[in-house]
Amino acid sequence: MHDHSAAELPSLRRQKILLILERDGKVMASELSQHFAVSEDTIRRDLAELDNAGLVQRVHGGALPRPKDTGKDYFTRLDEIDEVKIRLAQMAARKVQNGQTVMFDSGSTTLQVARSLPRDISITAVTASPMTAIVLSEYPGIKVILAGGQLNPKTLCASGHETLRLLRGIRADLAFTGVCAIHPEIGITSLHFDEVPVKQALLDSAERVIAVTTADKFGAVEPFVVAPCDRLHTLLTERHVASGSVEDYRRLGIEVEQLPD
Questions:
Q1: pTM of the prediction?
Q2: Structural domain boundaries, residue 234
Q3: Which one of 21, 113, 196, 225 has the largest count of C-beta atoms within 10 Å of its C-beta?
């Protein structure tokens, strides 16, 4: 059955996806793309939107219902996620020591880590994100090195040869990275193609890599592979993850630290 009427209206199509999910208990991107006669990319975007709104849980190749339906609206969920991010960022900021060279990935979580550092910290900070650089520049004891290049308006991060050359020429003690998606077998993946080499350069240039991520990123898979999970040394996250168990990551030799309830 091809439902062409839904192809024009993403919001209508997303409502129908939720109904199918309710009926079947699981949806697959490949089947939905045939059902609605749209590309799998379009369906993946639908599922990403529904996931962001806390309405479904994305898994490899499709989506599942949320483990517990909180019945909360989108904005309440956003506030909660922000509060969790702040707590995770504070936990991450405590890992930084005076005198270190620290790399900061782009993204809202790492930006929050930059905001959470102690006021009197004295470090050298390296980032390809102008927003993060501006936040860090407000600390009197932080020397900021900004890697330049072409700015991606979606990620607000620089990328390209110049960016990579600068990042690769630095030996950092610590790197903070955000994670678009993490899966024990598939690894760390990203939604943005040009972000991949920048993230890889960050992982290569730091002695210790700390990933700071909310629970909904676990078990998710995006199109572009950044690295296997074991490139991370430490994973900071919430008490309960969306898919699988934190033990999957501990088995890979990663130190996992979780927020208290």
A1: 0.72
A2: 76-258
A3: 113
Please indicate, yes or no, whether residues 81 and 204 belong to a single structural domain of this protein: yes
Answer yes or no: is 70 within a domain.
Answer: no
Backbone angles phi, psi at 172, to 5 degrees: -100, 155
Domains of the chain: total? 2
Statement to judge: residues 121 and 151 lie in one domain:
yes
